[in-house]
Amino acid sequence: MGILLSEHKSFLIRRRIPEEPVAELQDELYLDEDSFQRFTALESKRFNHQSFSFSVVKGENHCEIKADYFVGIDWLGKTGRTIYVEPKINAGLSQYFRNCLNEEENSTETPEEFNNKEKAEAKEINYLSILLDIMSLPETARYSKDVIQIDWKAQPITIDQKADRLTPFLIVQFLQHLKTIAKKGLKKSYYKVQENLNSKVKGKVLVGQHIKKNVFKNRLTSTFCEFQVFGEDHLENRFLKKVLEFVASYIGNNTSLFPAKSDLPAIKDILNYCRPAFEHISTDVDEYQLKNIKKNPFFNEYREAIRIGQLILKRFSYTITKTTQKKIETPPFWIDMPRLFELYFYYQLVKANPGDEQYIHYQFSTYGNYLDILISKPGFEMVIDTKYKLKYTKSHIHKDIRQVSGYSRLKKVVHKIKSKNEAWDENNILNCLIIYPHLYQPSENSLNVPQSLLTSFKIKDIQKQFENKENQITAYHKIFKLGINLPVS
User: Fold this and answer.
1) Domain boundaries in the chain?
2) For 358-403, how does the pLDDT look when each residue is reduced to its tens digit (9 = 90+)?
3) Cβ atoms 135, 141 nearer than 8 A
4) How far is C-alpha 17 from the chain's CA centre?
5) Which residues pair with 224 in a beta bridge?
6) Closest by alpha carbon to 284, among 225, 238, 236?
7) Are 323 and 246 in contact (CB under 8 A)?
């Protein structure tokens, strides 16, 4: 039995105590003594040195499992149960926070009352649409490698094909890398060819096969040879063509996994763009070669496409018929939604500011610290930190503000600003901006976009938004916040 959660929600496992009444709640489960004991050894699952995929808080008679900002599926230790976290965020809560800005301070309405009144539903973040955008730019695509973690060593988990989150994610990554390769042109290389030549010898003669194919059949003028050819039909391109066939089969049989109206046509357009480039490439490659193909460090697009292609084929055990099954086995995996959100904003920033790439520094590092984004354009200097937290719709988090303020005081940051603008006074205080997700859903009665919502990603327009009081964290000097709308499905 699996536990279904959405982002940042929790589930309570309780010890069943005899003769005590049991409350039937959706987010609680009562277990007998033996079953509950299995959860006493359950530990939090670490994603990296800073975050947990899910965390566990244990008490004497209960065990609380908390989902963080990660989407995926995994085993709950040795309990025999699984946890499945969906990419859903309560849009009603975001609306409630925004309405609170217009309420009087003595208002007694609670989020629960608001949700009941408005019948707010959780909205699913369209992470595939976000990934399609991220992968469409080389500047952002190269940072997408660490967005997902897959545990191939763990026992696979059986799920319905329609609940598959991993494969569509890998397919979008693969297709965008393949599109880059097709746009540049396929790489040419030397590869070996075996052919039965008539009245000539080329390369080396394969004696065993020559005897079998020619001598025994009295073909005295033919010679079976192996020789090298320089062209596109080499092992790497054959491998990519093989993966492309798997991808095409999966998309054709599972269109419901790409529900957004804009996503499926966009994915099919990429598929149709790539197919002609591989029209004359063979798929004659055996399973051993597929598993052991080497990545060329001089061709980054090939390296990433092959890496992701190997994950896709491994996902289906190198058997194309498994792309049509209703029940599938998936390895445990986790998608880092905060990282995806960070790259999505970076994508929007790069796309909206052509020619200013030299002033946009992503993951600017100094003394073990990594700033999300540093803007060094003269007159628009600022430090930007992305926070995948809805709380910023109404409030703020002091810990995050202290963090971004500390970044702006780093000497390396100040020196970087100085190198781009010699007139910059080192005693100036840098603007600090926190970017957070906003699930703005316009209704018939309310079509006005909130002032706190960022609609233009041009650097000059971002700074212009600082004038709005709604975007100012007034308790601090030169600290601002702006929300960006995320696609939902």
Assistant:
1) 2-86, 91-123, 127-187+233-336, 191-230, 353-485
2) 999 998 887 777 889 999 999 999 999 999 987 887 788 898 999 9
3) yes
4) 42
5) 196
6) 238
7) yes
